Each structure stands twice: as C-alpha cells, then as structure tokens.
Amino acid sequence: MTPLAGFLLVAALLFSIGLAGALTRRNAILVLIGIELMLNAANLNLIAFWRYGPHPEALTGMMFAIFSIAVAAAEAAVGLGLVIAVHRHAHTTDIDLMNRMKG
Amino acid sequence: MSFAFYLISALTVAGALAAVLLKNLVHCALALTIAFAGLALLFLNLDAQFAGFAQILVYIGAVAILVVFAILLTRGSETPKDGEIFSRTWLAGLAVAAAVFAVLGWAVLGTAPMLPHSSPAPHVTVLQIGNALMSRYVLPLEIVAVLLTAALIGAVMVAMHEKEEKQ
After folding, report:
1. What CATH class is the domain A3-90?
2. In chain A, at which end, N or C, are there fewer CB atoms within 10 A of the end residue's CB?
3. B17, B46, B147: residue with CB nearest A51
4. One-letter-per-residue 3-state SS of B123-136
C-alpha cells in the first residue's frame, strides 16, 4: 500500500466516524463535534494530496487546507452560538426533542 | 508506511471513536482534543509544518475550548433522563456512515496501484507561505477575514440575551 493510500484510508475512516456521530447522537454539541471531525478528515485529504501530488511547491493543497481551517473555526463559533441560543429558548440540547421550527 | 504513521493513525482514530461514543460530554470534548492533536501530528508527518501548527492553534487552542464552554453553558454534561445518548434512528445513521466508508474505502483501494509512490519531501518555508498569501491568494485571504468577522459578530448576536423576551 502506498503512503498516500494509507492517509486516504485514515481520512475516510475519520469522515465515517464523524458522520456516524453527527447522525446518531442526540446532543446538538455532539453533532457539531461530528461535523468538525468530517471537516478535519477533508483537510487531511487535501494535505495528503498536496504532499504526494506533482507540484507541492505551488502550495495549492496547503492553502486550501489553511482556508478550510479558518472557515471551520467560523462554523464552530456560529454553530455553538446557535446551540446556546436554542438551549436558552427550549431548555434542552436534545435534537430528538427539537421537532418544531416555531418557538 | 512508517511505524509513526500507524501509531499516530491509531491514536487519532481511537480519539475520534471515543469522541462520538462516550456518554459524558466533557469526556467527549477531551477525546476530540486527542483526535485534533493526532491530526496535527499527521500533518507534521506529511511535511506540512505550517498546517500542523495552525491545526494545533485553531483546533486545540480555540475550537476545543469553545466546545467545552458550550457544554458547560448548556449543562450538557448531565446525561439525559432516560440514559439514552443515541437517537431513535441510530441504526439508519450507522448504516449510512458504514455505506459511505465502504464506498470511500473501495474507491481508495481500487485506485491504490495508480496513486503516486513516495516523492521527495517538499521544502516549504513560512516565508514562501506568507508570500503566497500576500500575492496569489490575497483575495481569498481578505474574503476569509471578512467571513471570520461576520461569523464572530453573528455568533455573538445569536447567543446574546434576548431582552424583550425576558420582560
């Protein structure tokens, strides 16, 4: 197995774990944790392709990963702010109980 | 494939598994930090020093702390009354995740012989990254700066106290 295939398999495993967490857990914060894991798995793919791609000195994959990290930080801030707002409104973070869009 | 790669991968995957499986949310956040640290080590293993240290700064330094704050502010560390941490439709979610992993693994293993083998480690300095950020990638950099400002102001607005409702 080539090193790139190893990194891609680890990224696929992390993505699936994150997806399983986001789809099966009841707590909204755990859903956000699963989304963060999925974003990180995508970053690992980008860096691995940058490292073993034909022109690493062009820095394309590295830049993509750095911008992706910045966007993920913004996403985490907004997501956790939403969780706190929903908790103040509905007094729960259990997404099985949040089944109405009207407050 | 070096021994370090297997060790770091096992640590990262174990951290990720613990983060989605543990019952106490604070333990989940700590396991998530381990997974983030393992990913940073994987980035360093791939000769991407800048991305590795950015991962440590942003994820362990900011996102993990933010998650802990959110858990404590929402009293999420209390387990639900019926003790059930998984959704009613957990079987469907698990099946979707397993199917996604099967497709991804099949695609990677199917193309593995065509993937490039080892290549010399690229020599990338922070100076080169800074030059690229300030010349070729200056427009994305500015857009990300605006996006981060808007997102942080939005997060504060969303999480702020609604005064009218209190009265």
Report:
1. mainly alpha
2. C
3. B46
4. CCCHHHHHHHHHCC
